[in-house]
Specification:
Blueprint lengths: L5 E10 L6 H10 L19 E9 L5 E9 L6 H5 L7 E7 L3 H5 L1 H12 L5 E7 L11 H10 L3 E5 L7 H17 L12 E3 L4 H7 L3 E2 L12
Parallel strand pairs: 1-3, 1-4, 4-5, 5-6
Antiparallel strand pairs: 1-7, 2-3, 2-8
The structure holds guanosine-5'-triphosphate (GTP) and magnesium ion.
The site of guanosine-5'-triphosphate (GTP) has 21 residues, from helix 1.
Length: 227
């Protein structure tokens, strides 16, 4: 493959209850992306309204570069009918709970079920993320408990914090590498009517221009009217 050229785009969504830290996690990850001015990515965030997306190009362990289209969804129940409509077209999901919020952990099975109901089994790759790991004294979900839940749902588990910058890049990179492996092994297939994985033919110039660009759904004609 030509160096620096992306062949694939992976769509990844962050799902989980309100205020677990999805937007903070994504903005922290985007800060490591070249070309993003710091003031545009304040780590303090207001509750997300509907869905927003960002893109970042990454170099995977196995060699290829891929474009990640990262969808930040609102956790609040009142936006659920909007966010639900995006589940079908994702190949990766970061299922995020807050280690200091027991309910957000208990709702993980529901989030997982919702995606599975839309997609059918074995299409999306999930990673369970226990966020706000810096708040050790307020923790009410143990690492072991979360690992057991992840194992029972057939996914990996990782703890992250944006306050202490712990495992943020690793979480996204792990998910992207797992998707790549599944693609190579044939467990995930390109399908014309599915937006989870797309074949792209960017030139280097085009890619440089587009990588690390924050976009909004309203700019994407395919999704206008749903934002
Ligand atoms: N201590 C700590 N607080 C965090 C961390 N990440 C986010 N927060 C705080 O958690 C609150 C909610 O963060 P958001 O990123 O807006 O949460 P969200 O999941 O996007 O919320 P919705 O958009 O409503 O679904 C904010 O006050 C953040 O500052 C973290 O790693 N540690
Ligand atoms: Mg948010």
């Amino acid at each position: 493959m030509e160096a620096g050229v992306c062949r694939y785009q992976f769509r990844i969504a962050l799902l989980g209850d309100a205020a677990v830290g999805k937007t903070s996690l994504l903005r922290c990850y985007m800060r490591g992306s070249p070309g993003i001015p710091e003031p545009e990515l304040e780590l303090e965030s207001a509750p997300t309204v509907g869905v927003e997306f960002y893109t970042r190009t990454v170099q995977l362990q196995a060699g290829p570069r891929v474009k990640l289209q990262l969808w930040d969804t609102a956790g609040q129940e009142r936006f659920r009918c909007i966010t639900r409509s995006f589940y079908r077209n994702v190949v990766g999901v970061l299922l995020v709970f807050d280690v200091t919020n027991r309910k957000s952990f208990e709702h993980i099975r529901d989030w997982h079920q919702e995606v599975m109901a839309t997609q059918g089994p074995d299409k999306a790759i999930f990673l369970l993320v226990g966020h706000k790991s810096d708040l050790q004294s307020a923790r009410c979900v143990s690492t072991q408990e979360a690992e057991e839940l992840a194992a029972s749902l057939g996914m990996g588990f990782m703890e992250t914090s944006t306050k202490s910058n712990c495992n943020v890049d690793l979480a996204f990179d792990t998910l992207a590498n797992t998707i790549q492996q599944a693609l190579w092994q044939g467990a995930i297939k390109l399908e014309e009517d599915w937006g989870g994985v797309r074949l792209i033919q960017n030139t280097q110039k085009e890619q440089n221009r587009r990588s690390a660009t924050q976009e909004t759904l309203s700019e994407d004609p395919a999704y206008s009217g749903t934002h």
